[in-house]
């Protein structure tokens, strides 16, 4: 087993780099990479005469030091050299085969173009180098190829027939290196920074796709402007290039001046992309752009500090999307994602601190915890210090650390220096894994209302108790008429048990707790009868209103599943009132009408000490939807009627469409799918087309529509990914559906988008994946084993579907464990998948 890397073992680099010069002679099977690297001894450490360079899967042609050839013997992971004590120039020539690179890390080919992905440790598959983020250098790159478009980081300096040169003046770690060569066309634009610098913007795509870039470009321009206005950050090169590629392991990559994107997050037209796709494009474009400062100008000292750039950049993209759209709805969406994905991660075998202290494969730590919980920590910090000090601290962060590779300690010190606060207790959010639980009890006594909060913190992996954290609880109090008697304020919890009292109240108030989800915790509180419905109807905070509706729905579903209860009339009335409340924003009504997912319900029921039965959950959820549709029967036809405006990506219109699609889905529960069939036939954009299709599929009426969808969109790769997903997600038997999909002529399992379309949908079909006979688990294991040979990173990431094993009954657990054991016994298993499957298989209650 590969040995873990530990944060405690960090040592600074022996050598630093003054500048790097690279030449690429591109050929699919035999690309030559020539490097010239000017090293100097790191003044911060004792002088050393040994230099270790990382390098993997490279054919070494030659090495020289200061022009003199040296006989160097590489091993599996790199090269050790004896070097002078003074500065020296290291030169090497290596050969690599981008064509055979199916792992999509390093230099690889996608659809006839060359492209790169270096984060986290892909540069070592391009040439020998100290491939660690704390070694930063300016890069000069020459590309030789007959392909018409040759791109790298920084500014273009010169080009001729068959070659181009680029220069990136900003010192950067190798993980931000990028190079692209291909037959590409640009969707161009221009941006003038607030200090007057002109920037050429280009989105590069394959010929034919240039008409689908307008929304991504518009998002980029808005992001650039927003970062100037909100954080005072300007762009710092004369060009900013984005390239869309079809084969990509994740969403996108923030390489300096040359972002590389999964084409799914660039290309969009109303006919081919849903409103959700548009929103995701906006967010991801912003996220990668924002990395220019939070990630690139200020980077991480080592990969344990990944949340330094990711948590902060996610927080920034969430702020941006909130500013562009509705803050409340954005917050609700983010919290749903956090609770569905991050909370279970933080309570299961894959739990780790936001700043982990060890890893085997760093790619396995690009997790919800590092990203989304990392962003929650920034949000809490901002609430605790206030907006003005947050802005000051950020200014200090940029001024103090520009050009450096930093740690979480550096980040927190900036806030301590700005505010004078001691953040040592707050720092536990970075070092301690697990979702805190906060039990709330209350006492009413003649005008005095007291709330007592008790923190319950346990290490999810060891079961040991943890010391209390700093937890900001945003709250207010309402009177019985729904008027706010105490406005929103922050109660800062620091002790294990802490009380807060409010005096002089005329009557017992209703508390509105954790407004805006001010901390990523689980509140444990027994509400008084009718309280959720009251908050849902009256609270001034939209998040808390939604939360009350969500809790009410979970309670109803749990009672149906656990005690065979009926759909509750209280819930129906409360939700129906909200559904037709014209004072509320459409997007909010749409999201409030969404029922908790089957997966969410499995977790809720498990937490109540009962083993979830996926089939029973599915039945209960359907019964609730049908009852809600019945209650709203008179209103649904009008709510589901087409919009009479020309399509626009505008958030208000997208919100109206979302509500319409919710209504259509409910309507199909009671009209046999009639309205959805009409909507599908008449759809003029992808949101309506998919929305109507989903409404039909969810009631078992969608097969014909699904077939006609494939006929219509057979030539469109991104749209066909949706078809592959929907065919599995809504199948009564997704195992059979997946088997059929994998035999489809367009099923290309090496393409991560296509693989994810099918095998991401399988576990998302909760009752189907968790079939009692284990066939869902076995099928996923078969394909992960196959994918692992080609693409370990994506195989490892998708294996997390097995992480909730202990939630289920003994039979399912046995089948899941068998699937994991089969993965673990595969000959030649990658360290990536071995680490993930190993952690999941060894989990004990
Ligand atoms: N920084 C990249 C993620 C790289 C993942 C490497 N396995 C994208 C992002 O977070 O912006
Ligand atoms: Zn990022």
CATH class of the largest domain: Mainly Beta
The major pleated sheet works out as: 8 strands, mixed
Number of domains: 3
Strand content: 15-25%
Bound molecules: (3S)-3,7-diaminoheptanoic acid, zinc ion
Q: What shape does the CA trace take?
A: globular
Instruction: Kindly identify the CATH topology of the largest domain.
Output: Immunoglobulin-like
Total DSSP E strands: 30
Coarse structural class: alpha+beta
Determine the mean pLDDT. Answer: 98
List unreliable stretches of 5+ residues: none
CATH architecture label name of the largest domain: Sandwich
Oligomer: single chain
Spatial strand arrangement across the major sheet: 6-5-8-3-2-11-14-13
What is the CATH homologous superfamily assignment of the largest domain? Answer: tricorn interacting facor f3 domain
* Helix coverage percent: 40-55%
* Contiguous helical run count: 28
End-to-end Cα distance? 24 Å
Q: What's the alpha carbon Rg, rounded to whole Å? A: 27 Å
């Amino acid at each position: 087993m590969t040995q873990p890397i530990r944060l405690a073992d960090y040592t600074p680099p022996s050598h630093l780099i003054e500048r790097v010069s690279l030449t690429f002679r591109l050929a699919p099977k035999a690309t030559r990479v020539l490097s010239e690297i000017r090293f100097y001894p790191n003044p911060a450490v004792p002088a050393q005469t040994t230099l270790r360079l990382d390098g993997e899967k490279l054919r070494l042609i030659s090495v020289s030091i200061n022009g003199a050839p040296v006989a160097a013997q590489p091993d599996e992971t790199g090269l050790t050299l004896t070097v002078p004590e003074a500065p020296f120039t290291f030169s090497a020539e290596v050969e690599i085969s981008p064509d055979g690179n199916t792992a999509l890390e390093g230099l690889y080919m996608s659809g006839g173009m060359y492209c790169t992905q270096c984060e986290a440790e892909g540069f070592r598959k391009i040439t020998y180098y100290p491939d660690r983020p704390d070694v930063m250098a300016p890069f000069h790159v020459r590309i030789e190829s007959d392909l018409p478009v040759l791109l790298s980081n920084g500014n273009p300096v010169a080009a001729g027939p068959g070659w181009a040169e680029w220069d990136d003046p900003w010192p950067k770690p190798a993980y931000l290196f990028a190079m692209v060569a291909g037959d590409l066309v640009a969707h161009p634009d221009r941006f003038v920074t607030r200090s007057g610098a002109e920037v050429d913007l280009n989105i590069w795509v394959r010929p034919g796709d240039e008409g689908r870039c307008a929304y991504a470009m518009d998002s980029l321009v808005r992001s650039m402007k927003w970062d100037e206005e909100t954080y005072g950050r300007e762009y710092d090169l004369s060009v900013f290039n984005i390239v869309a590629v079809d084969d990509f392991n994740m969403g996108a990559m923030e390489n300096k001046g040359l972002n590389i994107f999964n084409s799914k997050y660039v290309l969009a037209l109303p006919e081919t992309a849903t409103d959700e796709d548009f929103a995701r494009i906006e967010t991801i474009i912003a996220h990668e752009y924002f990395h220019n400062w939070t990630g690139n100008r200020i980077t991480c000292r080592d990969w344990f500090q990944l949340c330094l750039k990711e948590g902060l950049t996610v927080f920034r993209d969430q702020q941006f999307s909130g500013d562009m759209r509705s803050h409340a709805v954005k917050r609700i969406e983010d919290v749903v994602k956090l609770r569905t994905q991050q909370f279970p991660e933080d309570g299961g075998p894959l739990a780790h601190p936001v700043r982990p202290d060890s890893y085997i494969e760093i790619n396995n730590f690009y997790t919800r915890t590092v990203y989304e919980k990392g962003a929650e920590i920034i949000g809490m910090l901002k609430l605790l210090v206030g907006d003005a000090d947050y802005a000051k601290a950020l200014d200090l962060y940029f001024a103090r650390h520009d050009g450096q590779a930093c740690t979480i300690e550096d980040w927190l010190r900036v806030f301590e220096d700005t505010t004078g606060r001691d953040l040592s207790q707050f720092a536990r959010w970075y070092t301690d894994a697990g979702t805190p639980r906060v039990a709330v009890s209350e006492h009413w006594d003649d005008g005095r209302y007291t709330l007592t909060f008790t923190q319950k913190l346990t290490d999810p992996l060891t079961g040991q108790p943890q010391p209390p954290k700093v937890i900001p609880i945003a709250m207010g109090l309402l009177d019985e008429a729904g008027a706010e008697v105490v406005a929103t304020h922050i109660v800062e919890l620091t002790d294990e048990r802490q009380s807060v009292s409010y005096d002089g109240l005329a009557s017992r108030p209703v508390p509105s707790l954790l407004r805006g989800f001010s901390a990523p915790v689980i509140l444990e509180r027994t509400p008084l009868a009718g309280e959720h419905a009251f908050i849902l109807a009256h609270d001034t905070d939209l998040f808390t209103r939604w939360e009350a509706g969500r809790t009410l729905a979970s309670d109803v579903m749990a009672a149906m599943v656990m005690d065979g209860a009926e759909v509750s009339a209280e819930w129906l009335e409360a939700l129906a009132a909200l559904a037709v409340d014209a004072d509320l924003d459409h997007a909010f009504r749409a999201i409030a009408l969404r029922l908790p997912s089957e997966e969410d319900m499995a977790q809720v029921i498990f937490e109540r000490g009962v083993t979830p039965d996926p089939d029973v959950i599915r039945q209960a959820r359907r019964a609730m939807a049908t009852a809600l549709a019945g209650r709203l029967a008179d209103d649904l036809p009008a709510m589901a009627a087409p919009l009479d405006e020309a399509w626009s990506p505008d958030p208000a219109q997208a919100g109206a469409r979302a509500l319409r699609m919710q209504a259509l889905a409910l309507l199909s529960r009671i009209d046999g799918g009639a309205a959805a069939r009409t909507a599908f036939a008449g759809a003029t954009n992808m949101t309506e087309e998919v929305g109507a299709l989903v409404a039909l599929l969810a009631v078992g009426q969608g097969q014909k529509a699904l077939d006609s969808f494939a006929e219509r969109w057979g030539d469109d790769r991104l749209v066909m990914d949706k078809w592959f997903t929907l065919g599995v997600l809504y199948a009564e038997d997704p195992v059979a559906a997946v088997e059929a999909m994998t035999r489809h002529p367009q099923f290309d399992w090496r393409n991560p988008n296509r693989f994810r379309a099918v095998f991401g949908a399988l576990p998302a079909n909760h009752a189907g994946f968790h079939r009692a006979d284990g066939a869902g688990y076995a099928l996923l294991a078969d394909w992960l084993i196959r994918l692992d040979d080609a693409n370990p990173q994506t195989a490892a990431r998708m294996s997390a579907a097995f992480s909730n094993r202990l939630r289920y009954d003994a039979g399912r657990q046995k089948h899941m464990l068998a699937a994991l054991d089969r993965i673990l016994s595969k000959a030649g298993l990658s360290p990536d998948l071995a680490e993930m499957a190993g952690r999941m298989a060894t989990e004990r209650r």
